[in-house]
User: Which sequence fits this backbone?
C-alpha cells in the first residue's frame, strides 16, 4: 500500500488532510514540524510527501531542501499545497524542488487526482531498470525529459485555466468600479459647482461654517478631489489592461491554430513583465520596440506565448548584474520585428516574420551557445533554472511552426534570439 507523509504545522489542517486521504484507502502519516518529518522518514520511507506551505513567514524552499536531503525522502514525489500569490512570488525558486502543486482552498477531487498521479509517478520511478548500457541510459534520459516536458506543459495548461477563472472574477468588480467612477466624477463636479454658487450667493458664511471650512481645508479639498478621482480611473483602467493581457496570454482555447497579431502578443507579455523590468533593486531595464509592418501570422498562440515569455524572461535575467552598474550603458532590451522576403533570406524560400529579442548583457560564451537548446542544459543556478525552457521554445518554433530559432551572441556584447516564422 502506498504511504503518504503530510507535513503541515497547522494541526487542524493536518487532521483534515489526513482524513481526506484515508477515506481513499491510503496509509497516511503526519508531521507538524520538520524534525518530526525527518524522524518519521527513518522508518516510513514515504512514496509521496504533501507539504502545506501557506505562510509568507515560512521558508518553504529551505524546508523542501531539508526534506529532500534525507536519503529516505529524496526519491519521493513532492506535492505542494499553497496559495496562488505565494507560489507566484516564489515560483522560480520552488518549481525545481517540487513535482506538482494544488492551491488552497483545497478541492478534494483535485487533491485526490494529483495524489493518485503522483503515486503512479513515484512507482514508475522506483521500478526503473538500473542498467549500465549507454543505449538503455539514453532511452531512460529521453523518457525522463519527455515526462518533465509533459509536466511543464500541463502546469502551463493548469495555470491558464486558473488565470482564466481569476481574471473573470477580477473583471466583474473592476467593471463596476470603472463604470461608477465616471458618475462619481460628475457628481463631485456638480457638488463643487454648487459650493461655488453658494459662495457667490452667500459671501458671508456663519462662524460655524467658517470654522468647518478651515477644519477640512476646503480649498485644498476642491483642488485635490478631481485628481483623486482621475487617479482612481487610471488605476481601474490599468487593472483592466492587465486582466485583458493575462486573458490573452493564458487563454485556454489557444491550443488551436489561428491568425494572430504578433505585436499584440508581445505587448501583452511586456505589460505582464513590467514589474520584472522595473526590478526590486538597481536600475530599471529600458525596453525599445522597433516594430515593422506585419501581417497576421497563423500559429498556435498559446505555444508562441510560452516562447516569447521565456525569451523575454531570459533577457531580463541576463541583465540583473547590469542593473547594479553605474555606467552610462543602460540595461536595455530591444524587440524588433520585420518581414523578410525569400530574396533577402539565406535560409528560407518563403516569406518569414522575424522577431528579434536582444539584450546588452554579458553575452554567452561560444562553447555554451552550442548547448543552449539541449534538454537539461542551463547556465542558471539550480534553484532557478529547469534546463528545458529553451529546448521547449526550440521545439515549438522549429517542429510545431516549421520556423527557426537562432542565437547570436558575443561575450561582453549581449545576446540576440531570433525567431523566424514562415508566413505560408
Assistant:
Amino acid at each position: 500500500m502506498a504511504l503518504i507523509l503530510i507535513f503541515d504545522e497547522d494541526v487542524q489542517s493536518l487532521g483534515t488532510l489526513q482524513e481526506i486521504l484515508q477515506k481513499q484507502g491510503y496509509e497516511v502519516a503526519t508531521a507538524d514540524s520538520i524534525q518530526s518529518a525527518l524522524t518519521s522518514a527513518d522508518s516510513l520511507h514515504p512514496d509521496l510527501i504533501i507539504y502545506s506551505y501557506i505562510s509568507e513567514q515560512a521558508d518553504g524552499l529551505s524546508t523542501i531542501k531539508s526534506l529532500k536531503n534525507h536519503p529516505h525522502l529524496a526519491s519521493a514525489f513532492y506535492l505542494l499545497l499553497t496559495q496562488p500569490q505565494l507560489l507566484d512570488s516564489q515560483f522560480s525558486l520552488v518549481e525545481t524542488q517540487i513535482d506538482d502543486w494544488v492551491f488552497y482552498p483545497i478541492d478534494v477531487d483535485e487533491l485526490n487526482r494529483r495524489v493518485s498521479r503522483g503515486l503512479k509517478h513515484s512507482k514508475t520511478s522506483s521500478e526503473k531498470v538500473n542498467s549500465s548500457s549507454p543505449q538503455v541510459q539514453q532511452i531512460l534520459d529521453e523518457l525522463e525529459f519527455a515526462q518533465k516536458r509533459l509536466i511543464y506543459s500541463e502546469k502551463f495548461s493548469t495555470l491558464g485555466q486558473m488565470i482564466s477563472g481569476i481574471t473573470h472574477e477580477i473583471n466583474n468588480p473592476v467593471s463596476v468600479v470603472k463604470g461608477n467612477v465616471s458618475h462619481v466624477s460628475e457628481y463631485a463636479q456638480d457638488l463643487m459647482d454648487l459650493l461655488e454658487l453658494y459662495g457667490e450667493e452667500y459671501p458671508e458664511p456663519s462662524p460655524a461654517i467658517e470654522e468647518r471650512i478651515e477644519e477640512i481645508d476646503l480649498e485644498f479639498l476642491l483642488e485635490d478631489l478631481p485628481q483623486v478621482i482621475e487617479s482612481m480611473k487610471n488605476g481601474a483602467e490599468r487593472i483592466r489592461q492587465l486582466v485583458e493581457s493575462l486573458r490573452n496570454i493564458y487563454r485556454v482555447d489557444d491550443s488551436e491554430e489561428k491568425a494572430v497579431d504578433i505585436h499584440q502578443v508581445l505587448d501583452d507579455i511586456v505589460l505582464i513583465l513590467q514589474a520584472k523590468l522595473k526590478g526590486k533593486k538597481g536600475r530599471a531595464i529600458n525596453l525599445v520596440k522597433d516594430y515593422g509592418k506585419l501581417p497576421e501570422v497563423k500559429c498556435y498562440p498559446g505555444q508562441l506565448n510560452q516562447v516569447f515569455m521565456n525569451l523575454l524572461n531570459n533577457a531580463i535575467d541576463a541583465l540583473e548584474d547590469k542593473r547594479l552598474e553605474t555606467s552610462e550603458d543602460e540595461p536595455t532590451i530591444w524587440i524588433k520585428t520585420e518581414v523578410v522576403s525569400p530574396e533577402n533570406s539565406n535560409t528560407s524560400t518563403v516569406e518569414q516574420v522575424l522577431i528579434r529579442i536582444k539584450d546588452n548583457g554579458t553575452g554567452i560564451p561560444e562553447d555554451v551557445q552550442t548547448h543552449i537548446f539541449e534538454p537539461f542544459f542551463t547556465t542558471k543556478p539550480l534553484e532557478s533554472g529547469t534546463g528545458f525552457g529553451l529546448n521547449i521554445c526550440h521545439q515549438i518554433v522549429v517542429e510545431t511552426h516549421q520556423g527557426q530559432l537562432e542565437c547570436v551572441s558575443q561575450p561582453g556584447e549581449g545576446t540576440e534570439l531570433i525567431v523566424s516564422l514562415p508566413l505560408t
The domain at 254-422 is CATH 3.30.565.10 (Heat Shock Protein 90).
